[in-house]
Amino acid sequence: MKKVLITGGAGFIGSNFVRYLLEESGGSGVQIVNLDALTYAGSLENLKDLSADAERYTFVHGDICNRDLVRDLLHQHQIDTIVHFAAESHVDRSILSPEPFIQANVIGTFTLLEAARQYWLVEKALPIEEVRFHHVSTDEVYGTLNPDDPAFSETTPYAPNSPYAASKASSDHLARSYNHTYQLPITISNCSNNYGPRQFPEKLIPLIILNALSGKPLPVYGDGQQIRDWLYVTDHCEAIHKIITRGTPGETYNIGGNNQPANLTIVETVCDLLDKLQPQVEPHRNLIKFVTDRPGHDRRYAMNISKIQRELGWQPRYSLTDGLLATVEWILANPDWVAAIQKQREYKTWMDKNYEKR
Ligand code: NAD
Ligand code: DAU
Q1: Number of domains in the chain
Q2: 229 in ligand 2 pocket by Cβ < 6 Å?
Q3: What pLDDT is attached to residue 28?
Q4: Distances (CA, A) of 250 to 8, 128, 240, 253
Q5: Is 260 in the pocket of ligand 2 (CB under 6 A)?
């Protein structure tokens, strides 16, 4: 029985991963402790139907920076695997207010690494070959690409451009150093842009869907020709599962979707899908509005995923067309989830703060 501590499991990718792991392990094989501070981005709405599975799933409301709490959880549940998602994750917020990113992403990761080192290496609580710390990170640590540059590989030098990316790069370096210095069994994954069910609608795709459904402007930063490498969230979950079960400690794996259209194309595709599923008098594309660009905006990301394909046999299952359709359909089928977020005062404050004067 694996005993897994998932951090940030009330957020977008974390909540999808909790579900993935419970389903993947069938009726047995895993016990999950989900530690989440329930910031604006975390919601128990994302985990609503899981509380009945008390044998295999426990939610703990708390902060990864709380050393005593993390230590107690490792002991109490005899944790052998940590999958670390918890973070401040939105680039625009990191530009307007970087400090929470240093706290959660750098200090939080350090606190978890120290607790794992103490429990697994100093106290030798469990056989070392049975434990694993997996650190979930981002392609943004590599910086930005010119149009003809090759895709990021695991050996591309780090060049983070936003406070968010710099805080994630710091946490990657800490994780790497704990493997190199102490031989803590750590894997790291750097993934491209995720989308899919339960993504907080401050991020491009859910924001565009919700604004379009309410007839609001669809804000496209700058010229809309920036490029991201889009991956459907369950593909990311499957990749992480492969890494924690079959990946090699000390290794980093790049994960990406092989889907790299410009932002404007993404927005137009969502508009066309909504024209079919929720037709209005005017086409949704008429709502598109070009607005002031993000400061320091990375122009292009692309991931070379040959290592994880070759070594772990992973590759994305969803095409962008199927993934976007599934995402729009999920939002249309879950008005309670949408209403719960739109009711949040914090969400409204953010929308005013980020878009009012753009
Ligand atoms: P998210 O913002 O949706 O969720 C983050 C979760 O972490 C929330 O539930 C929040 O409450 C929790 N959290 C934040 N600070 C915490 C703290 N101090 N203690 C405990 N919990 C805390 O983020 P996401 O999009 O699901 O991203 C998850 C992870 O994956 C992050 O580490 C992010 O850097 C990484 N990542 C995200 C993407 C993406 O496209 N979303 C891509 C690559 C990597
Ligand atoms: O690349 C992985 C990263 O992807 C993750 O590490 C981050 O946690 C995640 O937030 C995401 O970062 P991005 O900044 O790429 O995602 P976002 O959805 O904020 O923006 C995607 C692109 O769309 C980006 O080029 C900015 C643009 N954009 C975004 C918003 C919110 C717009 O044009 N308009 C918008 O209103």
Answers
A1: 1
A2: no
A3: 66
A4: 23, 14, 15, 10
A5: no
